[in-house]
Amino acid sequence: MDPRNRVALITGASMGIGAATALALAEAGCRVALVARSDDALAALAGEIRDRGGKALPLSGDVTNRPAVEAIVRQTVDTFGQIDILVNNAGVGIHQPSLTASWADVERLMAVNLYGPLAFIRAVVPPMREGGGGLIVNVSSIIGRRAVPQSGIYCASKAALERLGDSLRLDLAPDNIRVVTVYPGVTDTGFNRHTLNSDRPGQANADTEPQPGRMRRTPPERVARAIVRAIRREPRDAYATLFDWAFVTFSTLLPGVADAILRRYFASRTRR
Ligand SMILES: NC(=O)c1ccc[n+]([C@@H]2O[C@H](COP(=O)([O-])OP(=O)(O)OC[C@H]3O[C@@H](n4cnc5c(N)ncnc54)[C@H](OP(=O)(O)O)[C@@H]3O)[C@@H](O)[C@H]2O)c1
Question: Which residues contact 149 (CB under 8 A, 6 or more apart)?
């Protein structure tokens, strides 16, 4: 879909990949509805987009609040007249192991990463149908395709998002609503500082991801460009870098070898 003169609703637009995607889509001539909980960051981003000649609508809300999700979609349609593109990008991580993470955090993670996207899909499908079609972009992760140690709950949420999209692609084809899944790799955002940590209430999250130099992080602008490219070309699955694609492909072709490499790599990280 050519984003020019279209309307996109982007969740998790206050920072990171979502903010970069909103800027890139606005640059391409798309009107953008910006959704997240941080009002000030959304207002600043909307101001930046308007200063560059674009159209932006900041809409504060939590993706786990279903009445708020419906209100956000209604407000977008009331303001811009339609919704052509939904970018389900809001997401959260967790550093706690699958066996010991608190149930509150497990349920919260699923609520943000899986049920939130489903709530937005349910809300945008009626206006998309009315407008003759649309495009849903779900932001998963390379580790939703190939799980890694110590991240089982997060990997499961992203794998579930992929499967949800695969099934809806078939359900929604008669309505001309297409579904694309994007799989970023390690990206240079604050994601690892925003993880759920009810086991350490009030404490800041340590950034436990490998540091630059040990593992390269993709700039969020590059992931945003990949998302805009995916909007234009509409593949089923999209990657931001050749490394991300190679990681998934190698792990799919040689899963046992990938297991051994990942076990060693994560064990060495834990020892450091
Ligand atoms: N960074 C990576 O290495 C990486 C790799 C693969 C996939 N991803 C995926 O990419 C997406 C974006 O991540 P990022 O790296 O840009 O992380 P980020 O910088 O932490 O941004 C996350 C965004 O999600 C929003 N958000 C979180 N919980 C929300 C909620 N309950 N309701 C509404 N908005 C919420 C945040 O806004 P507020 O806090 O203002 O609400 C923020 O805008 C996520 O789905 C993540 O799983 C990231």
Answer: 262, 263, 266
